[in-house]
Specification:
Elements: E1 17-25, E2 28-38, E3 45-52, E4 65-70, H1 75-91, E5 94-98, E6 102-106, E7 118-124
Parallel strand pairs: 1-3
Antiparallel strand pairs: 1-2, 2-4, 3-5, 4-7, 5-6, 6-7
Length: about 130
């Protein structure tokens, strides 16, 4: 009986890891998130290094993707998640986190989105392909 309850609103896990990622910008925590459909075991911390317009990224629409959803540790992180995604949406920008194995592009949410998750396109480093 110690099993966790089944969440019917959660997308099914299909191929890929589920892991927690601490999303940061300028050494400040935005929000702890859960990464769904990850291509590999994720680093525990993603530091956003840049925020740019989507048109500045080559072939963004053709890249594979995973998802981030908030797994906030407190109300401050929950608020920061909403502010962060609201900023990306309002300004139509993409947040970039460059890690050793891949480059991640956090896409602006669609209009009318409730910010329940973010689509993250990624490009693997050439040494892994």
């Amino acid at each position: 009986m110690g099993d966790l309850p089944l969440n019917l609103n959660e997308p099914p896990k299909q191929d890929g890891f589920e892991s927690y990622v601490l999303l940061m910008k300028d050494r400040k925590t935005i929000c702890r998130t859960q990464c769904l459909k990850a291509p590999f075991e994720m680093p525990l911390v993603w530091n956003i290094s840049d925020i740019v317009r989507p048109k500045t990224i080559d072939s963004l629409s053709g890249l594979p993707h995973c998802f981030l959803r908030p797994a906030s540790e407190n109300s401050t992180q929950q608020r920061e998640w909403g502010l962060f995604l609201g900023f990306l949406q309002k300004s139509n920008k993409v947040a970039i986190a460059k890690l050793e194995l891949a480059e991640f592009f956090i896409l602006p949410p669609d209009e009318g989105s409730k910010f329940s998750r973010a689509v993250v396109s990624y490009r693997m480093e050439k040494t892994l392909q």
